[in-house]
Amino acid sequence: DGGITQSPKYLFRKEGQNVTLSCEQNLNHDAMYWYRQDPGQGLRLIYYSQIVNDFQKGDIAEGYSVSREKKESFPLTVTSAQKNPTAFYLCASSRDETYEQYFGPGTRLTVT
Amino acid sequence: AQSVTQLDSQVPVFEEAPVELRCNYSSSVSVYLFWYVQYPNQGLQLLLKYLSGSTLVKGINGFEAEFNKSQTSFHLRKPSVHISDTAEYFCAVTLLMNSGGYQKVTFGTGTKLQVIP
Q: Given A48, A102, A105, which is nearest B42 (Cβ)?
């Protein structure tokens, strides 16, 4: 079955450590996205990529980095510069930016 | 910049009663409109979408939505809700610009539907 996988489901880190969240899709989609979700704030776009080896900052990119070396993969690194990294992170993909997005199950990151 | 407004952060409704979740967007150009559902600790799932054609759109799980261009609204409705409909619902909009381009999708802040037995 085609879909998006995110791993791990839960992740715990100490403050000051970088951490990388995995996102893989086998839907052959060109566009991929990373969102952060906090209670009562909906989805906020961190980074998005329309094609391999290209990506753009979203609304809250500070303290995050991404890469898009393969069409199937769009990992997100939460760096120590991110002041409040504890959140639920969602990865999504779509044929292009006008089409519906398909979401992964999410990764809940807790930094203490 | 485009924005999407979901007026109600929470909507409690009794089981088997009808429900309407409201969504308005700030634009006068062409749009693509979407409703997604999110169950606790899961990703979002597409309920329905409006790209063009009939303004009444039917989706999964008995939901439907009506695109109203004059009121810039895309309200989600279900005639009779079930306990299993308890979830958070997100409206999303993609603007199609007159220049031929488009702005990336914007999500509303979500409405939590609580179905009461």
A: A105
Contact at CB, A90 and B104, closer than 8 angstroms: no
Instruction: Say if A84 is an interface residue toward chain B (CB within 8 Å).
Output: no
The alpha carbon of residue B92 is apart from the nearest alpha carbon of chain A, in Å, by 9
Q: How large is the average pLDDT for residues A56-67?
A: 95
Beta strands B10-14 and B111-116: pairing type? parallel
Please state, rounded to an integer, the average pLDDT across all residues of chain B. Answer: 90
3-state secondary structure B39-80: CCCCCEEEEEEECCCCCEEECHHHCEEEEECCCCEEEEEECC
pLDDT score for B53: 87
Roughly how many angstroms between the first and final C-alpha of chain B, as a whole number?
41
